Amino acid sequence: MPEDGALPARALEGAGERPLGFYLHVPYCATRCGYCDFNTYTASELRGAGGVLASRDNYAGQVAEEIRLARKVLGDDPRPVRTVFVGGGTPTMLAAGDLVRMLAAIRDEFGLADDAEVTTEANPESVDPAYLAELRAGGFNRISFGMQSARPHVLKVLDRNHTPGRPEACVAEARAAGFEHVNLDLIYGTPGESDDDWRASLDAAIGAGPDHVSAYALIVEEGTQLARRIRRGEVPMTDDDVHADRYLIADAAFEEAGFSWYEVSNWATSDAGRCLHNELYWRGADWWGAGPGAHSHVGGVRWWNVKHPGAYAAALGEGRSPGAGRELLSDEDRRVERILLELRLREGVELGLLKPAGRAAAERALADGLLDAEPYGAGRAVLTLRGRLLADAVVRDLVD
Ligand SMILES: C[S@@+](CC[C@H](N)C(=O)[O-])C[C@H]1O[C@@H](n2cnc3c(N)ncnc32)[C@H](O)[C@@H]1O
Ligand code: SF4
User: What does pTM read for this prediction?
Assistant: First the structure.
């Protein structure tokens, strides 16, 4: 990774035809949830090498600095930014004014498309109506709340402290503040969660009136508190069959409530409610990820920033790119990635991308009812409901 972050010329070839998005990472949380291994810290001040101080209070300024660096690296790239997604960590640990300032830096340097989608993630306990109003006035139009579950005993296993009903109330507050799009994140398959607990969480989420929901199977990440508790036998391991049952319960509940799946773990009430930013990732578009540990991709070049906020602050303070490493994707890498990501979408993936072994695997998946016959006839591999349950296995066979 060169010190100035310069990209090889080929990365910008044909850029005008691809949308450009920004991901802004906020690496701060009030407490660390036991299942989470995201790059996030609970201290508000962190020291990097050489004693450089990274503090929550000056974080927005550092991200703005990286956005100015992005402008230099992308040169006279004329594209206005189509999507901005502030994620974390917990972005709402920062003052609303800080999130607005980071967005303003993108607007100043690149310009925002008229219909730009501007999302922030939020923890339900860290926002109130005044905070939401400030974000809305500053240009945010989509918000994503981490709800996870409506059941206190499930939240307890996840180490989440939510006032009962708070995530649902957040949806109403966000709507009142003028947010057009509101998402709730749910997790299923937590040890101790029953089918009825999950149904109660789904009912609560749907009843709150979001236009988008994400539901993820709980992943036990190595090195987390949850993984240690499972190893010590304090909580049972998650179970794949239970995950499959919960997925079916979720899909039925969402479809009945007027949501349609558009990616294996994501449902929306209309096409306008889909998360365009995530679609940029899934369709291999260009995005710049700013912040410690953030990943970027522009025209087949992928790079990632130093992970620690102190090292990140130090690099930008010295006028260097915070990039830690990068890789140039080969045509074969990009073919495999397209299959991996596009197969998870409702539109599926072109059969023309498959090699003979992958094509034979697709025929078998079709015969097994994992791929939908109608789009298959029109040249696309699209997962059936049963195929979505086995998406990872189907993908593994199709990339051959
Ligand atoms: C950055 S968090 C969302 C914002 C905020 N930090 C919060 O948790 O409320 C992104 C989402 O990732 C999901 N997530 C994180 N770790 C997970 C894991 N181990 N298994 C499944 N989902 C996970 C959670 O649903 C979480 O809402
Ligand atoms: S799930 Fe969200 S709030 Fe919990 S530690 Fe991870 S990023 Fe922070």
Answer: 0.96
